[in-house]
Sequence to fold (279 residues):
Amino acid sequence: MSAAEMYRPMKNYDLSDQVAVITGGAGLLGREYGDVLSAAGAHVVVADILGTKAADVAAQVNKKSGVEAMSHATDVASPESVKDLINTTIDKFGRIDILVNNAALDPKFDAAHHGEHTSNFENFPFAKWQESLDVNVTGMFLCAQAVAGPMLEAKSGIIVNISSTYGLVGPDQRLYEREGEANQYKPVTYSVAKAAVLGLTRYLATYFRGSGIRVNTLTPGGVVADHDEEFMERYAEKTILNRMANPEEISSALLFLVSPASSYMTGSNLIVDGGWTAW
Ligand SMILES: NC(=O)c1ccc[n+]([C@@H]2O[C@H](COP(=O)([O-])OP(=O)(O)OC[C@H]3O[C@@H](n4cnc5c(N)ncnc54)[C@H](O)[C@@H]3O)[C@@H](O)[C@H]2O)c1
Fold:
Protein backbone atom coordinates (compact mmCIF):
# COMPACT_ATOMS: atom_id res chain seq x y z
CA MET A 1 0.00 0.00 0.00
CA SER A 2 1.46 3.37 -1.01
CA ALA A 3 1.73 6.27 1.46
CA ALA A 4 -0.86 8.18 -0.58
CA GLU A 5 -3.33 5.29 -0.19
CA MET A 6 -2.76 5.06 3.55
CA TYR A 7 -3.26 8.76 4.26
CA ARG A 8 -6.61 9.83 2.87
CA PRO A 9 -7.84 12.80 4.88
CA MET A 10 -10.83 13.42 2.59
CA LYS A 11 -12.21 10.03 3.58
CA ASN A 12 -12.93 11.60 6.96
CA TYR A 13 -15.68 13.59 5.29
CA ASP A 14 -17.48 10.54 3.94
CA LEU A 15 -20.75 10.18 5.84
CA SER A 16 -22.15 7.30 3.80
CA ASP A 17 -24.94 5.41 5.61
CA GLN A 18 -24.93 7.85 8.53
CA VAL A 19 -28.27 9.31 9.61
CA ALA A 20 -28.47 13.01 10.45
CA VAL A 21 -31.43 14.77 12.06
CA ILE A 22 -31.48 18.52 11.36
CA THR A 23 -33.97 20.54 13.39
CA GLY A 24 -35.13 23.74 11.75
CA GLY A 25 -34.09 21.92 8.59
CA ALA A 26 -36.40 23.95 6.36
CA GLY A 27 -34.80 27.29 7.27
CA LEU A 28 -32.07 29.33 5.63
CA LEU A 29 -29.15 27.42 7.18
CA GLY A 30 -31.01 24.16 7.79
CA ARG A 31 -31.45 23.73 4.03
CA GLU A 32 -27.72 24.24 3.52
CA TYR A 33 -26.94 21.70 6.20
CA GLY A 34 -29.22 19.16 4.47
CA ASP A 35 -27.40 19.76 1.20
CA VAL A 36 -23.89 19.39 2.59
CA LEU A 37 -24.58 16.34 4.75
CA SER A 38 -26.42 14.50 1.97
CA ALA A 39 -23.67 15.42 -0.49
CA ALA A 40 -21.30 13.70 1.96
CA GLY A 41 -23.55 10.61 1.79
CA ALA A 42 -25.70 10.95 4.93
CA HIS A 43 -29.41 10.22 5.08
CA VAL A 44 -31.02 13.44 6.20
CA VAL A 45 -34.10 13.97 8.35
CA VAL A 46 -35.48 17.45 7.80
CA ALA A 47 -37.36 18.28 11.02
CA ASP A 48 -39.22 21.57 11.13
CA ILE A 49 -42.38 23.03 12.57
CA LEU A 50 -43.25 23.97 8.98
CA GLY A 51 -44.07 20.44 7.88
CA THR A 52 -44.91 21.19 4.24
CA LYS A 53 -41.74 23.23 3.77
CA ALA A 54 -39.73 20.42 5.43
CA ALA A 55 -41.23 17.90 3.00
CA ASP A 56 -40.24 20.12 0.04
CA VAL A 57 -36.69 20.44 1.37
CA ALA A 58 -36.39 16.67 1.92
CA ALA A 59 -37.60 16.07 -1.64
CA GLN A 60 -35.00 18.54 -2.97
CA VAL A 61 -32.23 16.93 -0.90
CA ASN A 62 -33.18 13.55 -2.28
CA LYS A 63 -33.30 14.86 -5.86
CA LYS A 64 -29.91 16.61 -5.63
CA SER A 65 -27.95 13.94 -3.77
CA GLY A 66 -29.75 10.69 -4.57
CA VAL A 67 -29.52 9.89 -0.87
CA GLU A 68 -32.73 8.96 0.93
CA ALA A 69 -34.12 11.86 2.95
CA MET A 70 -37.28 12.24 5.01
CA SER A 71 -39.14 15.07 6.65
CA HIS A 72 -40.96 15.35 9.96
CA ALA A 73 -43.27 18.11 11.18
CA THR A 74 -41.63 18.64 14.55
CA ASP A 75 -42.17 21.19 17.27
CA VAL A 76 -38.87 21.04 19.16
CA ALA A 77 -40.52 22.67 22.18
CA SER A 78 -42.89 19.70 22.58
CA PRO A 79 -41.53 16.55 24.29
CA GLU A 80 -44.12 14.36 22.49
CA SER A 81 -43.32 15.81 19.09
CA VAL A 82 -39.57 15.33 19.62
CA LYS A 83 -40.07 11.74 20.78
CA ASP A 84 -42.13 11.08 17.67
CA LEU A 85 -39.34 12.55 15.51
CA ILE A 86 -36.75 10.23 17.00
CA ASN A 87 -39.01 7.12 16.94
CA THR A 88 -39.98 7.79 13.32
CA THR A 89 -36.33 8.24 12.36
CA ILE A 90 -35.29 4.98 14.04
CA ASP A 91 -38.25 3.15 12.47
CA LYS A 92 -37.20 4.39 9.04
CA PHE A 93 -33.39 4.22 9.18
CA GLY A 94 -32.67 2.07 12.24
CA ARG A 95 -30.18 4.56 13.72
CA ILE A 96 -29.31 8.18 14.49
CA ASP A 97 -25.68 9.21 14.18
CA ILE A 98 -25.91 12.98 14.06
CA LEU A 99 -28.16 15.59 15.66
CA VAL A 100 -27.91 19.16 14.45
CA ASN A 101 -29.76 21.26 17.05
CA ASN A 102 -30.43 24.16 14.71
CA ALA A 103 -34.11 25.15 15.11
CA ALA A 104 -34.59 28.56 16.67
CA LEU A 105 -36.75 31.60 16.66
CA ASP A 106 -34.24 33.97 15.07
CA PRO A 107 -35.71 37.43 14.47
CA LYS A 108 -34.63 38.54 11.02
CA PHE A 109 -33.81 42.08 9.93
CA ASP A 110 -34.05 41.59 6.17
CA ALA A 111 -36.55 43.36 3.90
CA ALA A 112 -39.32 40.82 4.53
CA HIS A 113 -39.25 41.50 8.29
CA HIS A 114 -38.76 45.26 8.19
CA GLY A 115 -40.22 47.02 11.24
CA GLU A 116 -41.15 43.83 13.11
CA HIS A 117 -38.81 44.14 16.08
CA THR A 118 -39.61 47.44 17.78
CA SER A 119 -40.08 46.01 21.26
CA ASN A 120 -37.46 47.48 23.59
CA PHE A 121 -36.11 45.61 26.63
CA GLU A 122 -38.21 47.61 29.10
CA ASN A 123 -41.42 46.43 27.44
CA PHE A 124 -40.29 43.05 26.17
CA PRO A 125 -43.36 40.80 26.46
CA PHE A 126 -43.12 37.99 28.99
CA ALA A 127 -44.95 35.62 26.61
CA LYS A 128 -42.31 36.25 23.95
CA TRP A 129 -39.53 35.59 26.46
CA GLN A 130 -41.09 32.25 27.35
CA GLU A 131 -41.83 31.24 23.78
CA SER A 132 -38.28 31.99 22.63
CA LEU A 133 -36.60 30.16 25.47
CA ASP A 134 -38.98 27.20 24.99
CA VAL A 135 -37.87 26.83 21.38
CA ASN A 136 -34.25 28.02 21.49
CA VAL A 137 -33.12 26.40 24.74
CA THR A 138 -35.67 23.81 25.86
CA GLY A 139 -35.94 22.57 22.26
CA MET A 140 -32.23 21.75 22.21
CA PHE A 141 -32.47 20.04 25.60
CA LEU A 142 -35.40 17.90 24.46
CA CYS A 143 -33.75 16.85 21.20
CA ALA A 144 -30.43 16.02 22.90
CA GLN A 145 -32.28 14.04 25.56
CA ALA A 146 -34.27 12.11 22.94
CA VAL A 147 -31.16 11.03 20.98
CA ALA A 148 -29.15 10.20 24.10
CA GLY A 149 -30.64 6.69 24.49
CA PRO A 150 -30.02 5.50 20.92
CA MET A 151 -26.56 7.12 20.84
CA LEU A 152 -25.51 5.61 24.18
CA GLU A 153 -26.70 2.22 22.96
CA ALA A 154 -24.72 2.64 19.74
CA LYS A 155 -21.70 3.90 21.76
CA SER A 156 -21.32 6.70 19.25
CA GLY A 157 -23.00 9.90 18.20
CA ILE A 158 -22.43 13.52 17.36
CA ILE A 159 -24.46 16.47 18.55
CA VAL A 160 -23.88 19.97 17.22
CA ASN A 161 -25.69 22.84 18.90
CA ILE A 162 -26.01 26.05 16.91
CA SER A 163 -25.22 29.27 18.76
CA SER A 164 -24.50 32.76 17.36
CA THR A 165 -21.98 35.54 17.80
CA TYR A 166 -24.67 37.07 20.00
CA GLY A 167 -24.16 34.19 22.40
CA LEU A 168 -20.57 35.42 22.83
CA VAL A 169 -20.94 39.20 22.68
CA GLY A 170 -23.89 41.54 23.06
CA PRO A 171 -25.72 42.72 19.94
CA ASP A 172 -24.67 46.08 18.52
CA GLN A 173 -28.15 47.59 18.39
CA ARG A 174 -26.87 50.43 16.18
CA LEU A 175 -27.01 47.98 13.27
CA TYR A 176 -30.78 48.00 13.40
CA GLU A 177 -31.35 51.78 13.72
CA ARG A 178 -32.71 53.71 10.74
CA GLU A 179 -33.00 57.49 10.61
CA GLY A 180 -36.59 58.68 10.97
CA GLU A 181 -37.86 55.23 11.93
CA ALA A 182 -38.76 53.63 15.26
CA ASN A 183 -35.77 51.79 16.72
CA GLN A 184 -35.59 48.06 16.17
CA TYR A 185 -33.85 45.69 18.54
CA LYS A 186 -32.31 42.26 18.46
CA PRO A 187 -34.26 40.81 21.40
CA VAL A 188 -32.84 39.87 24.79
CA THR A 189 -34.07 36.30 24.35
CA TYR A 190 -31.72 35.71 21.44
CA SER A 191 -28.56 36.56 23.39
CA VAL A 192 -29.70 34.65 26.46
CA ALA A 193 -30.63 31.53 24.48
CA LYS A 194 -27.48 31.52 22.38
CA ALA A 195 -25.29 31.88 25.48
CA ALA A 196 -27.19 28.99 27.09
CA VAL A 197 -26.28 26.82 24.09
CA LEU A 198 -22.60 27.06 25.07
CA GLY A 199 -23.41 25.81 28.57
CA LEU A 200 -25.55 22.98 27.23
CA THR A 201 -22.72 21.87 24.94
CA ARG A 202 -20.14 21.84 27.73
CA TYR A 203 -22.51 20.03 30.08
CA LEU A 204 -23.35 17.32 27.55
CA ALA A 205 -19.77 16.86 26.38
CA THR A 206 -18.55 16.26 29.92
CA TYR A 207 -21.59 14.19 30.87
CA PHE A 208 -21.07 11.88 27.88
CA ARG A 209 -17.37 11.29 28.64
CA GLY A 210 -16.28 7.80 27.65
CA SER A 211 -19.52 7.10 25.78
CA GLY A 212 -18.38 7.72 22.21
CA ILE A 213 -20.68 10.75 21.94
CA ARG A 214 -19.12 14.10 21.01
CA VAL A 215 -20.91 17.41 21.50
CA ASN A 216 -19.80 20.75 20.08
CA THR A 217 -21.18 24.20 19.35
CA LEU A 218 -21.09 25.87 15.96
CA THR A 219 -21.21 29.65 16.21
CA PRO A 220 -22.09 31.34 12.92
CA GLY A 221 -21.91 35.04 12.23
CA GLY A 222 -24.57 36.81 10.15
CA VAL A 223 -25.44 35.11 6.88
CA VAL A 224 -26.42 37.01 3.74
CA ALA A 225 -30.15 36.91 3.08
CA ASP A 226 -32.31 39.72 1.77
CA HIS A 227 -30.72 42.51 3.86
CA ASP A 228 -30.67 46.15 2.75
CA GLU A 229 -27.43 47.87 1.70
CA GLU A 230 -27.21 49.89 4.92
CA PHE A 231 -27.39 46.78 7.06
CA MET A 232 -24.84 44.93 4.93
CA GLU A 233 -22.41 47.86 5.15
CA ARG A 234 -22.80 48.31 8.89
CA TYR A 235 -22.45 44.58 9.43
CA ALA A 236 -19.36 44.38 7.23
CA GLU A 237 -17.64 47.05 9.34
CA LYS A 238 -18.05 44.88 12.42
CA THR A 239 -16.10 42.00 10.86
CA ILE A 240 -12.43 41.64 10.01
CA LEU A 241 -13.26 40.08 6.64
CA ASN A 242 -15.55 43.05 5.89
CA ARG A 243 -18.67 41.14 4.86
CA MET A 244 -21.45 38.81 5.94
CA ALA A 245 -21.10 35.04 5.53
CA ASN A 246 -22.36 32.96 2.63
CA PRO A 247 -24.43 29.96 3.76
CA GLU A 248 -21.86 27.47 2.41
CA GLU A 249 -19.18 29.00 4.64
CA ILE A 250 -21.25 27.91 7.64
CA SER A 251 -22.31 24.51 6.30
CA SER A 252 -18.73 23.51 5.50
CA ALA A 253 -17.87 24.13 9.17
CA LEU A 254 -20.83 21.96 10.15
CA LEU A 255 -19.55 19.16 7.91
CA PHE A 256 -16.22 19.32 9.74
CA LEU A 257 -17.92 19.11 13.15
CA VAL A 258 -20.13 16.12 12.30
CA SER A 259 -17.38 14.15 10.58
CA PRO A 260 -14.41 12.15 11.90
CA ALA A 261 -12.21 15.08 10.77
CA SER A 262 -13.09 16.70 14.12
CA SER A 263 -12.59 13.50 16.14
CA TYR A 264 -10.46 15.26 18.80
CA MET A 265 -13.08 17.98 19.46
CA THR A 266 -15.74 17.85 22.14
CA GLY A 267 -17.17 20.47 24.46
CA SER A 268 -15.80 23.06 22.11
CA ASN A 269 -17.03 25.96 20.02
CA LEU A 270 -16.19 26.57 16.38
CA ILE A 271 -16.66 30.27 15.63
CA VAL A 272 -17.26 31.19 11.97
CA ASP A 273 -17.94 34.90 12.19
CA GLY A 274 -15.56 36.67 9.82
CA GLY A 275 -13.69 37.90 12.88
CA TRP A 276 -16.61 39.82 14.49
CA THR A 277 -15.71 38.62 17.99
CA ALA A 278 -11.93 39.00 17.58
CA TRP A 279 -11.61 42.81 17.73
N1 LIG B 1 -28.91 33.32 9.72
C1 LIG B 1 -27.95 33.84 10.47
O1 LIG B 1 -27.37 34.88 10.12
C2 LIG B 1 -27.53 33.16 11.74
C3 LIG B 1 -26.41 33.64 12.42
C4 LIG B 1 -26.01 33.03 13.59
C5 LIG B 1 -26.74 31.96 14.10
N2 LIG B 1 -27.83 31.53 13.42
C6 LIG B 1 -28.55 30.39 13.99
O2 LIG B 1 -28.61 29.37 13.01
C7 LIG B 1 -29.84 28.63 13.15
C8 LIG B 1 -30.61 28.68 11.85
O3 LIG B 1 -30.84 30.02 11.48
P1 LIG B 1 -31.57 30.41 10.13
O4 LIG B 1 -31.03 31.70 9.70
O5 LIG B 1 -31.56 29.27 9.20
O6 LIG B 1 -33.05 30.66 10.68
P2 LIG B 1 -34.42 30.42 9.96
O7 LIG B 1 -35.41 31.26 10.68
O8 LIG B 1 -34.29 30.60 8.48
O9 LIG B 1 -34.68 28.89 10.25
C9 LIG B 1 -35.08 28.42 11.49
C10 LIG B 1 -36.02 27.25 11.24
O10 LIG B 1 -36.46 26.77 12.52
C11 LIG B 1 -37.83 26.44 12.40
N3 LIG B 1 -38.47 26.45 13.71
C12 LIG B 1 -38.86 27.54 14.42
N4 LIG B 1 -39.47 27.13 15.54
C13 LIG B 1 -39.45 25.79 15.55
C14 LIG B 1 -39.93 24.80 16.44
N5 LIG B 1 -40.59 25.12 17.56
N6 LIG B 1 -39.73 23.50 16.12
C15 LIG B 1 -39.09 23.14 14.98
N7 LIG B 1 -38.63 24.04 14.08
C16 LIG B 1 -38.83 25.35 14.38
C17 LIG B 1 -38.40 27.49 11.47
O11 LIG B 1 -39.62 27.05 10.88
C18 LIG B 1 -37.27 27.65 10.46
O12 LIG B 1 -37.45 26.82 9.34
C19 LIG B 1 -30.57 29.27 14.32
O13 LIG B 1 -30.26 28.56 15.50
C20 LIG B 1 -29.99 30.65 14.36
O14 LIG B 1 -30.12 31.23 15.62
C21 LIG B 1 -28.25 32.10 12.26
User: Anything to note?
Assistant: The longest strand covers residues 213-220.
